[in-house]
Amino acid sequence: MGRILNNADHKEIRVFTPTGMLGYGYTMTAFNAGMRREPHVVSIDAGSTDAGPFKLGQGVASVSRQATKKDLLHILIETKRHNIPVIIGSAGGAGAAPNVQWTIGIVQEIAKECKLHFRITVIWADVEKSYLKEKMINKKIMPLGPVGPLTEENVDKSNYIVAQMGIEPYLAALEEGPEVIIAGRSFDPVMTACLCVKNGFDTGLALHMGKILECGALCAIPASGGDSIMGYLRGDHFVVEPLNPLRKCTKTSVAAHTLYEKPHPYILHGPGGHLDLSESFFEEISDTAVKVTGSRFFPSENYTLKLEGAGLVGYRTFCLAGIRDQIFIRALDESLEYTRNRLIEYFSEISFDEYELQFRLYGHNAVLGEKEPLIDQPIHEIGLVIDVVAKSQEIADMLCSFARATLLHYDYTGRIGTAGNLAFPYSPSDVSSGSVYQFTIHHLMEVDDPCELFSVETFEI
Amino acid sequence: MKTKSFIPIQELVKVIRSKNSGPFMLTLDLLMKDSISYWLVKKSGVINTKLICDLYGISSEEILELESYDPALAYKITLVRPVPSGNILDTDIYGAQQYAPLLNIRIPIKDGG
After folding, report:
1. Cβ of B61 under 8 Å from any chain A Cβ?
2. What is the number of structural domains in chain B?
3. pLDDT value at residue A49
4. Structurally, how many domains does chain A consist of?
5. pTM of the shown model
6. Is the pLDDT at A72 greater than 80, yes or no?
7. Which candidate in A264, A308, A446, B14 could, as Cys together with A140 as Cys, close a disulfide (CB 3.0–4.6 Å)?
8. pLDDT for residue A48
9. What is the span of the domain harbouring residue B84?
Protein backbone atom coordinates (compact mmCIF):
# COMPACT_ATOMS: atom_id res chain seq x y z
CA MET A 1 0.00 0.00 0.00
CA GLY A 2 1.42 3.39 -0.93
CA ARG A 3 4.18 2.06 -3.20
CA ILE A 4 4.14 3.17 -6.81
CA LEU A 5 3.94 0.68 -9.62
CA ASN A 6 6.18 0.72 -12.64
CA ASN A 7 4.50 2.25 -15.62
CA ALA A 8 5.90 0.01 -18.31
CA ASP A 9 4.22 1.95 -21.09
CA HIS A 10 6.52 4.94 -20.81
CA LYS A 11 10.27 5.10 -21.10
CA GLU A 12 11.79 5.14 -17.67
CA ILE A 13 15.25 5.01 -16.07
CA ARG A 14 15.50 3.63 -12.57
CA VAL A 15 18.46 4.74 -10.46
CA PHE A 16 19.21 3.20 -7.10
CA THR A 17 21.42 4.96 -4.54
CA PRO A 18 22.06 2.62 -1.60
CA THR A 19 23.69 5.24 0.61
CA GLY A 20 24.44 8.96 0.63
CA MET A 21 28.18 8.41 1.06
CA LEU A 22 30.21 5.30 0.52
CA GLY A 23 31.16 4.10 3.99
CA TYR A 24 28.09 5.53 5.76
CA GLY A 25 26.27 2.21 5.48
CA TYR A 26 22.74 1.21 4.52
CA THR A 27 20.03 -1.11 5.82
CA MET A 28 19.76 -4.53 4.18
CA THR A 29 15.97 -4.21 4.02
CA ALA A 30 16.25 -1.06 1.97
CA PHE A 31 19.09 -2.40 -0.15
CA ASN A 32 17.24 -5.57 -1.07
CA ALA A 33 14.09 -3.59 -1.78
CA GLY A 34 16.09 -1.40 -4.13
CA MET A 35 17.55 -4.32 -6.02
CA ARG A 36 14.08 -5.85 -6.39
CA ARG A 37 13.01 -2.69 -8.26
CA GLU A 38 15.41 -3.68 -11.07
CA PRO A 39 17.39 -0.45 -11.27
CA HIS A 40 19.21 0.32 -14.48
CA VAL A 41 22.18 1.68 -12.55
CA VAL A 42 23.48 1.99 -8.99
CA SER A 43 24.98 5.43 -8.40
CA ILE A 44 26.99 6.49 -5.37
CA ASP A 45 28.64 9.70 -4.30
CA ALA A 46 31.82 9.00 -2.38
CA GLY A 47 33.06 12.50 -1.58
CA SER A 48 32.70 16.13 -0.59
CA THR A 49 34.75 19.08 0.66
CA ASP A 50 32.73 19.06 3.88
CA ALA A 51 35.31 17.80 6.26
CA GLY A 52 37.93 20.42 5.55
CA PRO A 53 41.09 20.34 3.43
CA PHE A 54 42.78 17.38 5.10
CA LYS A 55 41.61 14.66 2.70
CA LEU A 56 42.64 16.57 -0.38
CA GLY A 57 45.86 17.82 1.18
CA GLN A 58 47.05 14.47 2.46
CA GLY A 59 45.47 12.29 -0.23
CA VAL A 60 43.44 10.15 2.15
CA ALA A 61 39.80 9.26 2.66
CA SER A 62 37.55 10.58 5.40
CA VAL A 63 35.62 7.38 5.95
CA SER A 64 37.30 4.19 7.11
CA ARG A 65 38.58 1.66 4.59
CA GLN A 66 36.74 -1.08 6.44
CA ALA A 67 33.41 0.74 6.28
CA THR A 68 33.89 1.51 2.61
CA LYS A 69 34.79 -2.07 1.77
CA LYS A 70 31.84 -3.36 3.78
CA ASP A 71 29.45 -1.10 1.86
CA LEU A 72 30.98 -1.98 -1.51
CA LEU A 73 31.20 -5.72 -0.94
CA HIS A 74 27.49 -6.31 -0.93
CA ILE A 75 26.83 -3.75 -3.65
CA LEU A 76 29.34 -5.34 -6.03
CA ILE A 77 28.19 -8.91 -5.40
CA GLU A 78 24.55 -8.07 -6.01
CA THR A 79 25.06 -5.78 -9.00
CA LYS A 80 27.33 -8.34 -10.63
CA ARG A 81 24.68 -10.97 -10.11
CA HIS A 82 21.98 -8.81 -11.69
CA ASN A 83 24.19 -7.29 -14.35
CA ILE A 84 23.70 -3.71 -13.16
CA PRO A 85 26.46 -1.11 -13.61
CA VAL A 86 27.80 0.75 -10.57
CA ILE A 87 28.94 4.35 -10.79
CA ILE A 88 31.08 5.79 -8.00
CA GLY A 89 31.91 9.49 -8.18
CA SER A 90 34.34 11.66 -6.19
CA ALA A 91 35.97 8.39 -5.17
CA GLY A 92 37.86 8.21 -1.91
CA GLY A 93 36.45 11.48 -0.63
CA ALA A 94 38.45 14.17 -2.39
CA GLY A 95 38.57 12.48 -5.79
CA ALA A 96 42.29 13.02 -6.41
CA ALA A 97 44.59 10.30 -7.74
CA PRO A 98 45.46 8.72 -4.36
CA ASN A 99 41.80 8.73 -3.35
CA VAL A 100 40.75 7.08 -6.62
CA GLN A 101 43.61 4.60 -6.32
CA TRP A 102 42.47 3.75 -2.80
CA THR A 103 39.00 2.93 -4.09
CA ILE A 104 40.36 0.85 -6.97
CA GLY A 105 42.41 -1.08 -4.40
CA ILE A 106 39.29 -1.90 -2.39
CA VAL A 107 37.41 -3.04 -5.49
CA GLN A 108 40.33 -5.23 -6.53
CA GLU A 109 40.43 -6.77 -3.09
CA ILE A 110 36.71 -7.54 -3.21
CA ALA A 111 37.05 -9.02 -6.69
CA LYS A 112 39.87 -11.28 -5.54
CA GLU A 113 38.13 -12.41 -2.35
CA CYS A 114 34.83 -13.11 -4.09
CA LYS A 115 36.41 -14.51 -7.25
CA LEU A 116 34.59 -12.00 -9.40
CA HIS A 117 35.71 -10.24 -12.56
CA PHE A 118 34.85 -6.66 -13.35
CA ARG A 119 35.31 -4.38 -16.30
CA ILE A 120 36.33 -1.10 -14.64
CA THR A 121 36.53 2.34 -16.20
CA VAL A 122 38.38 5.00 -14.24
CA ILE A 123 38.03 8.73 -14.85
CA TRP A 124 40.87 10.79 -13.42
CA ALA A 125 40.19 14.34 -12.21
CA ASP A 126 43.70 15.56 -11.42
CA VAL A 127 45.06 18.81 -12.78
CA GLU A 128 48.73 19.35 -13.59
CA LYS A 129 50.31 22.48 -12.16
CA SER A 130 51.88 23.38 -15.49
CA TYR A 131 48.52 23.14 -17.23
CA LEU A 132 46.99 25.37 -14.59
CA LYS A 133 49.70 27.98 -14.86
CA GLU A 134 49.23 28.16 -18.60
CA LYS A 135 45.50 28.65 -18.10
CA MET A 136 46.33 31.45 -15.65
CA ILE A 137 48.47 33.20 -18.25
CA ASN A 138 45.59 32.93 -20.71
CA LYS A 139 43.27 34.47 -18.13
CA LYS A 140 41.01 31.44 -17.98
CA ILE A 141 40.86 31.20 -14.17
CA MET A 142 38.42 33.15 -11.99
CA PRO A 143 37.76 33.14 -8.22
CA LEU A 144 34.82 31.03 -7.11
CA GLY A 145 33.05 32.69 -4.22
CA PRO A 146 34.74 35.04 -1.76
CA VAL A 147 38.37 34.20 -2.60
CA GLY A 148 41.18 36.18 -4.15
CA PRO A 149 42.57 35.60 -7.64
CA LEU A 150 44.68 32.47 -8.08
CA THR A 151 48.39 33.01 -7.51
CA GLU A 152 51.35 30.93 -8.64
CA GLU A 153 52.29 30.58 -5.01
CA ASN A 154 49.00 28.91 -4.21
CA VAL A 155 49.40 26.53 -7.11
CA ASP A 156 52.92 25.61 -5.97
CA LYS A 157 51.78 25.14 -2.36
CA SER A 158 49.06 22.66 -3.37
CA ASN A 159 49.64 18.98 -2.80
CA TYR A 160 46.74 17.83 -4.91
CA ILE A 161 44.57 19.70 -7.37
CA VAL A 162 41.35 18.38 -8.88
CA ALA A 163 38.69 19.67 -11.24
CA GLN A 164 35.06 18.77 -10.63
CA MET A 165 33.87 16.96 -13.74
CA GLY A 166 30.44 17.23 -15.36
CA ILE A 167 28.41 14.71 -17.32
CA GLU A 168 30.57 14.60 -20.45
CA PRO A 169 33.49 12.52 -19.13
CA TYR A 170 30.97 10.02 -17.78
CA LEU A 171 29.35 9.76 -21.22
CA ALA A 172 32.78 8.98 -22.63
CA ALA A 173 33.33 6.38 -19.90
CA LEU A 174 29.97 4.74 -20.57
CA GLU A 175 31.05 4.15 -24.18
CA GLU A 176 33.62 1.70 -22.83
CA GLY A 177 30.87 -0.60 -21.55
CA PRO A 178 32.05 -0.73 -17.93
CA GLU A 179 30.51 -2.70 -15.10
CA VAL A 180 31.98 -0.27 -12.58
CA ILE A 181 32.94 3.37 -13.08
CA ILE A 182 35.31 4.81 -10.50
CA ALA A 183 35.62 8.54 -11.06
CA GLY A 184 37.57 11.29 -9.38
CA ARG A 185 36.07 14.57 -8.25
CA SER A 186 32.64 14.99 -9.81
CA PHE A 187 29.71 17.36 -9.72
CA ASP A 188 27.40 15.62 -7.27
CA PRO A 189 24.40 14.87 -9.52
CA VAL A 190 26.27 13.46 -12.50
CA MET A 191 26.71 9.88 -11.26
CA THR A 192 22.93 9.60 -11.51
CA ALA A 193 22.37 11.93 -14.44
CA CYS A 194 24.89 10.49 -16.91
CA LEU A 195 23.03 7.35 -17.92
CA CYS A 196 19.79 9.34 -18.09
CA VAL A 197 21.27 11.96 -20.41
CA LYS A 198 22.93 9.26 -22.52
CA ASN A 199 19.50 7.76 -23.11
CA GLY A 200 17.98 11.04 -24.18
CA PHE A 201 16.23 12.11 -20.98
CA ASP A 202 15.94 15.77 -20.00
CA THR A 203 19.15 17.16 -18.48
CA GLY A 204 17.41 19.45 -15.97
CA LEU A 205 15.27 16.67 -14.55
CA ALA A 206 18.21 14.25 -14.57
CA LEU A 207 20.48 16.65 -12.68
CA HIS A 208 17.82 17.57 -10.14
CA MET A 209 17.07 13.90 -9.51
CA GLY A 210 20.80 13.29 -9.19
CA LYS A 211 21.17 16.11 -6.69
CA ILE A 212 18.49 14.54 -4.50
CA LEU A 213 19.67 10.96 -4.87
CA GLU A 214 23.33 11.58 -4.13
CA CYS A 215 22.56 12.23 -0.47
CA GLY A 216 20.70 8.95 -0.02
CA ALA A 217 17.65 9.18 2.20
CA LEU A 218 18.46 12.69 3.42
CA CYS A 219 15.42 13.96 1.48
CA ALA A 220 13.15 11.64 3.46
CA ILE A 221 11.50 11.76 6.86
CA PRO A 222 13.13 10.71 9.08
CA ALA A 223 16.22 11.77 7.16
CA SER A 224 19.36 9.67 6.86
CA GLY A 225 22.50 9.99 4.81
CA GLY A 226 23.21 6.34 5.53
CA ASP A 227 20.19 4.80 3.83
CA SER A 228 18.81 4.10 0.36
CA ILE A 229 16.75 6.05 -2.14
CA MET A 230 15.26 5.22 -5.51
CA GLY A 231 14.75 7.57 -8.44
CA TYR A 232 12.54 7.02 -11.48
CA LEU A 233 13.15 9.40 -14.37
CA ARG A 234 10.53 9.63 -17.07
CA GLY A 235 9.82 11.97 -19.99
CA ASP A 236 8.63 15.06 -18.19
CA HIS A 237 9.08 14.25 -14.51
CA PHE A 238 10.89 12.14 -11.98
CA VAL A 239 9.82 10.38 -8.81
CA VAL A 240 11.85 9.78 -5.67
CA GLU A 241 11.05 7.30 -2.96
CA PRO A 242 12.98 5.87 0.02
CA LEU A 243 13.27 2.08 0.19
CA ASN A 244 13.19 1.74 3.95
CA PRO A 245 9.52 1.34 4.96
CA LEU A 246 10.17 3.48 8.03
CA ARG A 247 10.89 6.53 5.86
CA LYS A 248 8.85 8.62 3.46
CA CYS A 249 9.36 11.57 1.15
CA THR A 250 7.04 14.53 1.36
CA LYS A 251 6.86 17.40 -1.10
CA THR A 252 8.40 19.69 1.50
CA SER A 253 11.15 17.28 2.51
CA VAL A 254 12.21 16.88 -1.13
CA ALA A 255 11.93 20.60 -1.90
CA ALA A 256 13.89 21.42 1.25
CA HIS A 257 16.64 19.02 0.28
CA THR A 258 17.77 21.30 -2.52
CA LEU A 259 18.76 23.83 0.11
CA TYR A 260 21.19 21.46 1.80
CA GLU A 261 24.78 22.69 1.64
CA LYS A 262 24.00 24.95 -1.29
CA PRO A 263 24.40 28.72 -1.36
CA HIS A 264 21.10 29.39 -3.15
CA PRO A 265 17.71 27.73 -2.59
CA TYR A 266 16.86 27.14 -6.25
CA ILE A 267 19.85 27.95 -8.48
CA LEU A 268 22.65 25.40 -8.56
CA HIS A 269 25.77 26.11 -10.59
CA GLY A 270 27.74 23.25 -12.04
CA PRO A 271 30.05 22.36 -14.91
CA GLY A 272 28.78 23.85 -18.13
CA GLY A 273 25.77 25.68 -16.75
CA HIS A 274 23.25 25.90 -13.95
CA LEU A 275 20.19 24.11 -12.68
CA ASP A 276 17.13 26.30 -12.09
CA LEU A 277 14.46 24.99 -9.74
CA SER A 278 12.38 28.18 -9.51
CA GLU A 279 9.66 26.57 -11.61
CA SER A 280 9.94 23.12 -10.06
CA PHE A 281 6.76 21.60 -8.72
CA PHE A 282 6.71 18.95 -6.02
CA GLU A 283 3.73 16.65 -5.61
CA GLU A 284 3.10 13.74 -3.26
CA ILE A 285 1.81 10.84 -5.37
CA SER A 286 1.63 8.30 -2.58
CA ASP A 287 2.34 8.00 1.15
CA THR A 288 6.04 7.77 0.44
CA ALA A 289 6.84 9.02 -3.08
CA VAL A 290 7.18 12.50 -4.53
CA LYS A 291 6.90 13.55 -8.18
CA VAL A 292 8.93 16.51 -9.44
CA THR A 293 8.44 18.51 -12.63
CA GLY A 294 9.74 21.76 -14.05
CA SER A 295 13.44 21.58 -13.22
CA ARG A 296 15.55 23.18 -15.93
CA PHE A 297 19.18 23.24 -16.94
CA PHE A 298 20.66 26.28 -18.66
CA PRO A 299 24.03 25.73 -20.34
CA SER A 300 26.46 28.61 -19.90
CA GLU A 301 28.16 30.37 -22.78
CA ASN A 302 31.59 29.29 -21.60
CA TYR A 303 32.11 25.86 -20.09
CA THR A 304 33.68 26.25 -16.64
CA LEU A 305 34.95 23.71 -14.15
CA LYS A 306 35.44 24.10 -10.42
CA LEU A 307 39.02 23.62 -9.24
CA GLU A 308 39.91 22.47 -5.74
CA GLY A 309 43.39 22.34 -4.26
CA ALA A 310 44.86 21.88 -0.80
CA GLY A 311 48.37 22.25 0.57
CA LEU A 312 50.34 21.84 3.76
CA VAL A 313 50.35 24.71 6.23
CA GLY A 314 52.22 23.20 9.15
CA TYR A 315 51.96 20.78 12.03
CA ARG A 316 49.70 20.97 15.04
CA THR A 317 50.14 20.17 18.71
CA PHE A 318 47.32 20.79 21.11
CA CYS A 319 46.62 20.43 24.79
CA LEU A 320 43.20 19.98 26.36
CA ALA A 321 42.71 21.28 29.90
CA GLY A 322 39.79 21.96 32.22
CA ILE A 323 39.47 25.15 34.23
CA ARG A 324 37.12 25.17 37.20
CA ASP A 325 38.26 28.02 39.42
CA GLN A 326 36.03 31.06 38.82
CA ILE A 327 38.70 33.39 40.19
CA PHE A 328 41.02 32.09 37.47
CA ILE A 329 38.26 32.40 34.90
CA ARG A 330 37.86 36.07 35.80
CA ALA A 331 41.63 36.52 35.40
CA LEU A 332 41.83 34.44 32.22
CA ASP A 333 42.37 37.28 29.76
CA GLU A 334 45.31 38.52 31.80
CA SER A 335 46.70 35.00 32.11
CA LEU A 336 46.45 34.16 28.44
CA GLU A 337 48.05 37.45 27.49
CA TYR A 338 50.89 36.84 29.90
CA THR A 339 51.42 33.32 28.52
CA ARG A 340 51.47 34.53 24.93
CA ASN A 341 53.91 37.35 25.67
CA ARG A 342 56.18 35.08 27.68
CA LEU A 343 56.30 32.62 24.80
CA ILE A 344 57.12 35.29 22.23
CA GLU A 345 59.84 36.64 24.48
CA TYR A 346 61.39 33.26 25.29
CA PHE A 347 61.34 32.03 21.70
CA SER A 348 62.41 35.31 20.15
CA GLU A 349 64.50 33.41 17.61
CA ILE A 350 61.32 32.06 16.01
CA SER A 351 59.55 34.68 13.94
CA PHE A 352 55.86 35.53 14.47
CA ASP A 353 54.72 34.25 11.11
CA GLU A 354 56.26 30.83 11.64
CA TYR A 355 53.65 29.72 14.12
CA GLU A 356 50.12 30.32 15.29
CA LEU A 357 49.18 30.06 18.97
CA GLN A 358 45.50 29.99 19.85
CA PHE A 359 43.54 29.51 23.02
CA ARG A 360 40.13 28.01 22.36
CA LEU A 361 37.73 28.51 25.27
CA TYR A 362 34.91 25.98 25.21
CA GLY A 363 32.06 27.11 27.41
CA HIS A 364 32.83 30.73 26.55
CA ASN A 365 33.28 31.59 22.86
CA ALA A 366 35.09 28.72 21.15
CA VAL A 367 32.38 27.97 18.58
CA LEU A 368 31.05 31.39 17.62
CA GLY A 369 34.15 33.47 18.38
CA GLU A 370 33.47 37.18 18.14
CA LYS A 371 29.88 36.48 17.15
CA GLU A 372 28.99 34.93 20.51
CA PRO A 373 25.96 36.83 21.82
CA LEU A 374 26.24 35.33 25.34
CA ILE A 375 29.90 36.19 25.84
CA ASP A 376 29.30 38.09 29.08
CA GLN A 377 27.48 35.28 30.84
CA PRO A 378 29.18 34.13 34.05
CA ILE A 379 30.55 30.59 33.77
CA HIS A 380 32.05 28.16 36.23
CA GLU A 381 33.95 25.85 33.92
CA ILE A 382 35.96 26.21 30.73
CA GLY A 383 37.36 23.56 28.40
CA LEU A 384 40.60 25.14 27.24
CA VAL A 385 42.42 24.00 24.12
CA ILE A 386 45.94 25.33 23.67
CA ASP A 387 46.42 25.05 19.93
CA VAL A 388 49.76 25.52 18.20
CA VAL A 389 50.47 25.18 14.49
CA ALA A 390 54.09 25.55 13.46
CA LYS A 391 56.49 24.78 10.61
CA SER A 392 57.55 21.47 12.13
CA GLN A 393 56.00 19.01 14.55
CA GLU A 394 58.99 19.49 16.82
CA ILE A 395 58.50 23.24 17.07
CA ALA A 396 54.76 22.83 17.59
CA ASP A 397 55.45 20.36 20.41
CA MET A 398 57.93 22.71 22.01
CA LEU A 399 55.73 25.80 21.87
CA CYS A 400 52.63 24.00 23.10
CA SER A 401 54.57 22.50 25.97
CA PHE A 402 55.96 25.88 26.99
CA ALA A 403 52.55 27.59 26.80
CA ARG A 404 50.96 24.81 28.84
CA ALA A 405 53.63 24.88 31.52
CA THR A 406 53.54 28.66 31.75
CA LEU A 407 49.76 28.85 32.06
CA LEU A 408 49.65 25.96 34.54
CA HIS A 409 51.81 27.83 37.03
CA TYR A 410 51.10 31.49 36.33
CA ASP A 411 50.45 33.47 39.52
CA TYR A 412 47.49 35.55 38.30
CA THR A 413 45.90 38.45 40.18
CA GLY A 414 43.87 37.24 43.17
CA ARG A 415 45.05 33.62 42.96
CA ILE A 416 44.44 31.43 46.00
CA GLY A 417 44.65 28.02 44.25
CA THR A 418 48.41 27.83 44.14
CA ALA A 419 49.06 24.18 43.23
CA GLY A 420 48.06 24.21 39.55
CA ASN A 421 45.72 26.20 37.32
CA LEU A 422 44.72 23.48 34.86
CA ALA A 423 43.01 20.07 35.06
CA PHE A 424 44.47 17.77 32.42
CA PRO A 425 42.36 14.75 31.53
CA TYR A 426 45.32 12.95 29.94
CA SER A 427 48.97 12.13 30.50
CA PRO A 428 50.76 13.10 28.32
CA SER A 429 48.75 16.29 28.24
CA ASP A 430 49.96 17.40 24.82
CA VAL A 431 48.90 15.73 21.57
CA SER A 432 51.02 15.97 18.42
CA SER A 433 48.30 15.77 15.82
CA GLY A 434 50.33 15.94 12.62
CA SER A 435 49.93 17.77 9.33
CA VAL A 436 47.58 20.69 8.88
CA TYR A 437 46.32 21.66 5.44
CA GLN A 438 44.37 24.51 3.95
CA PHE A 439 42.43 25.01 0.74
CA THR A 440 44.78 26.74 -1.68
CA ILE A 441 42.58 26.68 -4.76
CA HIS A 442 38.83 27.28 -5.09
CA HIS A 443 38.44 28.74 -8.55
CA LEU A 444 36.63 28.37 -11.85
CA MET A 445 38.46 27.45 -15.03
CA GLU A 446 37.23 27.93 -18.57
CA VAL A 447 37.79 25.01 -20.89
CA ASP A 448 37.07 24.47 -24.59
CA ASP A 449 36.38 20.75 -24.25
CA PRO A 450 34.52 19.43 -21.14
CA CYS A 451 36.57 16.22 -21.34
CA GLU A 452 40.01 17.67 -21.97
CA LEU A 453 41.15 17.30 -18.37
CA PHE A 454 39.58 13.96 -17.58
CA SER A 455 41.39 10.94 -18.93
CA VAL A 456 39.44 7.71 -19.11
CA GLU A 457 41.08 4.34 -18.55
CA THR A 458 39.49 0.90 -18.80
CA PHE A 459 40.79 -2.43 -17.53
CA GLU A 460 39.57 -5.84 -16.44
CA ILE A 461 40.11 -7.30 -12.97
CA MET B 1 -6.45 48.46 20.86
CA LYS B 2 -3.83 46.35 19.14
CA THR B 3 -0.90 45.17 21.20
CA LYS B 4 2.18 43.56 19.75
CA SER B 5 3.31 40.25 21.04
CA PHE B 6 5.91 37.89 19.70
CA ILE B 7 6.25 34.24 18.85
CA PRO B 8 9.68 32.74 19.31
CA ILE B 9 10.90 31.37 15.97
CA GLN B 10 11.60 28.07 17.70
CA GLU B 11 7.86 27.47 17.81
CA LEU B 12 7.49 28.04 14.07
CA VAL B 13 10.35 25.98 12.67
CA LYS B 14 11.03 22.36 12.01
CA VAL B 15 14.70 22.99 11.31
CA ILE B 16 17.27 25.73 11.86
CA ARG B 17 20.68 24.64 10.63
CA SER B 18 24.01 25.84 9.30
CA LYS B 19 26.56 24.10 7.09
CA ASN B 20 29.41 24.98 4.79
CA SER B 21 28.56 25.53 1.18
CA GLY B 22 32.00 24.87 -0.14
CA PRO B 23 34.91 25.86 2.11
CA PHE B 24 34.41 29.62 1.86
CA MET B 25 30.72 30.11 2.46
CA LEU B 26 28.37 29.34 5.32
CA THR B 27 24.74 28.66 4.51
CA LEU B 28 21.93 28.95 7.06
CA ASP B 29 18.50 27.38 6.55
CA LEU B 30 15.28 28.01 8.41
CA LEU B 31 12.63 25.45 7.46
CA MET B 32 9.18 26.35 8.87
CA LYS B 33 7.05 23.58 10.22
CA ASP B 34 3.95 24.37 8.13
CA SER B 35 2.45 26.83 5.64
CA ILE B 36 0.86 29.02 8.30
CA SER B 37 4.16 29.48 10.11
CA TYR B 38 6.00 30.15 6.85
CA TRP B 39 3.62 32.84 5.68
CA LEU B 40 3.54 34.42 9.14
CA VAL B 41 7.32 34.74 9.03
CA LYS B 42 7.37 35.85 5.41
CA LYS B 43 4.67 38.50 5.88
CA SER B 44 6.41 39.86 8.97
CA GLY B 45 9.51 40.68 6.93
CA VAL B 46 11.62 40.00 10.02
CA ILE B 47 14.23 37.89 8.27
CA ASN B 48 16.10 40.56 6.41
CA THR B 49 19.59 41.93 5.87
CA LYS B 50 19.56 44.15 8.95
CA LEU B 51 18.53 41.29 11.22
CA ILE B 52 21.34 39.07 9.99
CA CYS B 53 23.90 41.88 10.20
CA ASP B 54 22.85 42.57 13.81
CA LEU B 55 22.77 38.92 14.88
CA TYR B 56 26.13 38.06 13.34
CA GLY B 57 27.92 41.38 13.76
CA ILE B 58 28.69 41.58 10.05
CA SER B 59 28.27 44.08 7.25
CA SER B 60 25.79 43.53 4.44
CA GLU B 61 28.61 42.79 1.97
CA GLU B 62 29.22 39.59 3.85
CA ILE B 63 25.71 38.37 3.11
CA LEU B 64 25.89 36.60 -0.25
CA GLU B 65 22.30 35.36 -0.42
CA LEU B 66 19.12 35.94 1.51
CA GLU B 67 16.19 34.21 -0.17
CA SER B 68 12.91 32.55 0.65
CA TYR B 69 11.79 29.44 -1.24
CA ASP B 70 8.06 28.75 -1.03
CA PRO B 71 8.02 25.04 -2.02
CA ALA B 72 10.32 24.25 0.87
CA LEU B 73 8.67 26.71 3.30
CA ALA B 74 12.20 27.91 3.88
CA TYR B 75 14.57 30.83 4.18
CA LYS B 76 18.18 30.54 3.14
CA ILE B 77 20.95 32.93 4.12
CA THR B 78 24.49 32.47 2.83
CA LEU B 79 27.41 34.31 4.42
CA VAL B 80 31.09 34.65 3.72
CA ARG B 81 32.91 32.47 6.23
CA PRO B 82 35.17 34.55 8.50
CA VAL B 83 37.96 32.11 7.61
CA PRO B 84 37.82 29.19 5.16
CA SER B 85 36.96 25.74 6.46
CA GLY B 86 40.01 24.03 7.90
CA ASN B 87 41.99 27.25 8.22
CA ILE B 88 44.19 27.32 11.34
CA LEU B 89 41.86 29.83 12.98
CA ASP B 90 38.66 27.98 12.04
CA THR B 91 36.34 27.21 14.95
CA ASP B 92 33.89 24.90 13.21
CA ILE B 93 35.12 22.75 10.30
CA TYR B 94 31.68 21.84 8.97
CA GLY B 95 30.11 25.14 9.97
CA ALA B 96 27.54 23.04 11.76
CA GLN B 97 27.00 25.08 14.91
CA GLN B 98 26.95 28.62 13.53
CA TYR B 99 23.16 28.92 13.52
CA ALA B 100 22.90 29.55 17.27
CA PRO B 101 22.26 33.32 16.97
CA LEU B 102 19.14 32.54 14.86
CA LEU B 103 17.51 30.58 17.67
CA ASN B 104 16.37 33.71 19.51
CA ILE B 105 14.60 35.41 16.63
CA ARG B 106 11.07 36.50 17.48
CA ILE B 107 8.27 37.11 15.04
CA PRO B 108 5.73 39.83 15.89
CA ILE B 109 2.04 39.01 15.82
CA LYS B 110 -0.75 41.46 16.51
CA ASP B 111 -3.50 40.52 18.89
CA GLY B 112 -6.58 42.24 20.08
CA GLY B 113 -8.09 44.75 17.71
Report:
1. no
2. 1
3. 64
4. 2
5. 0.89
6. yes
7. A446
8. 72
9. 16-104
